[in-house]
Amino acid sequence: MPPTTAHLNGSINLDDTETVMRDVAARIPRGLRRLPDGETGDRQQWILFQFLKFQQMADLELEQSEVDPATYTTPKLMLRDGADPAAIAWPDLGYAGVYEQSFATFRALEDEGVVPPGVRFQVEYPTPLASIVGFISPRDQMTLLDSYEAALFADLQKLLAAVPHDRVAVQWDVAVEFGMLEQIYDEEGAAKDLDTIADRIARCVDQVPAGVPAGAHLCYGDYGHRPFSDPESLATQVRVIEAVGARASRPVSWYSLTVPQDVSDPAYFAPLADLRLPDETELYLALVPYHPDDQSPGTTEEQIRLVDEHLGSREWGICTECGMGRVEREDVPAMLDAHREILERAAPVT
User: Fold this and answer.
1) Sheet holding 5-6, edge to edge
2) 203-217: buried (b, 16+ CB within 10 Å) or exposed (e) per residue?
3) CATH of the domain at 111
4) What is the pLDDT of residues 169-180, one digit of tens each?
5) How many domains does the chain have?
6) Is the pTM of this model over 0.85?
7) What are phi and psi for residue 124, nearest 5 degrees?
């Protein structure tokens, strides 16, 4: 069947939470089940938000300051000489506090009738592995991963204690893991095998109680509106989905999958035919381009045909490859409109 729903992966480069929510509600009036706050301000550049927190820690010092986007090199911190890893005290990681404020805006707009009935407030957390691999020296990554994971999970529980479970949904952003699986990141500190990675993603999913939807954004990044690696097919993403599903003690509520913008090769979509998911798990494919002009004419329609061919009668929806935090601000309205336009073309309202 054609796509009927849209999913937003989190970051949206607009001024503030209220602007994000008003614009999204106006430009995507149907097919949206969850509404993010846009990850504005310090969270716009994803896990850089956590690097700012790590810099506050007396037990860490800068090992490497050079940043090279071409090789995905980021600043690295390491344990100071004499620091006791067992005594590491992570600072307030910041997500719960800012999401509580955003939820207040969400409820006010809900009361105003801007947020449609039934739409949940969506929060996004990076996997613990992402921030550790991104900003900690390889020599210390495994030493610090478990304690940081505990701190991040505690932040999530703080949030879930503050917001009604019937109004919120949680997304885990899985990106660095694909860099490791595709052998893009030359990191010696963290395990790169599928089983270990799937175990850790499942641990994240299991932190979300059964009454709260929990999804996963499977992401290959946004480097100048290109993924950090052009996957040959959806095979790796399908393998991750299967491995996580076999390990998580609760269902994953949705997955959003990467589809490079101009891909219409049948082989890319073929692994969908082997995907086995519970009926209640939502599936979103990244068919929304950064710029319509970047795609060949008819690409989206051909992508829809190929997805339908392999999914059959299963319901599915659309999303972007990554978030919209790195999209030029003047381009954001057109990207939001593209969600509505694709859904309208695929399944016109009668």
Assistant:
1) 5-6, 317-318, 282-285, 254-257, 214-218, 168-174, 120-126, 34-36
2) bbbebbeeebbbbbb
3) 3.20.20.210
4) 999 999 989 888
5) 1
6) yes
7) -125, 135
